[in-house]
Design a protein that fits this description.
The protein has about 70 residues and is an alpha+beta fold. The chain folds into two domains: about 45 residues, no CATH class; about 30 residues, no CATH class. Helices cover about 35% and strands about 10% of the residues. α1 links the parallel β1 and β2. It is flat and about 40 Å long. The termini are far apart. The chain binds flavin-adenine dinucleotide. Flavin-adenine dinucleotide binds next to α1.
Length: about 70
C-alpha cells in the first residue's frame, strides 16, 4: 500500500476470520473499511474442521457457495 492518506470509517487490525467477517458486514452496511493485515495471504493456518454452529455465520456472510465449492459437508 502506498503512503498516501487513506480515509476510512473503520480500521480493522487483522484479517483473520473475525476481522474479515466484521469488515464484510460493515462494508455491506456502507462503511468504508480498511483491513490492516501483517501477513501476505494465503497464509499457512492449521485447521481442518468446522463446528456445525459455524454454518449460521457462513449463511449470514453469504458464504454458502464457498462451502459447496470446497466440498464441506453440512
Ligand atoms: C493449531 C490450531 C488449530 C485450529 N484448528 C481449527 C479448526 O480445525 N477449526 C476451527 O474452526 N478453528 C480452528 N482453530 C481456531 C481458529 O484458527 C481461530 O478460532 C480463528 O483463526 C480465530 O480468528 P481470529 O480472526 O480471531 O484470529 P486469527 O485467525 O489469529 O487472525 C488474526 C489476524 O491478525 C493479524 N494480526 C495480528 N496482529 C497484527 C498486527 N499488529 N497488525 C496487523 N495484523 C495483525 C494476524 O496476522 C492474523 O492474520 C485452530 C487454532 C489453532 C491455533
Amino acid at each position: 500500500m502506498s503512503q498516501e492518506n487513506v480515509v476510512c470509517d473503520v480500521l480493522i487490525v487483522g484479517g483473520g476470520p473475525a476481522g474479515s467477517a466484521a469488515a464484510a458486514q460493515l462494508a455491506r452496511q456502507g462503511r468504508r473499511v480498511l483491513v490492516a493485515e501483517r501477513q501476505r495471504f494465503p497464509r499457512f493456518h492449521i485447521g481442518e474442521s468446522l463446528l456445525p454452529a459455524s454454518n449460521v455465520l457462513f449463511q449470514r456472510l453469504g458464504l454458502e457457495s464457498f462451502q459447496t465449492l470446497e466440498g464441506s459437508q453440512t
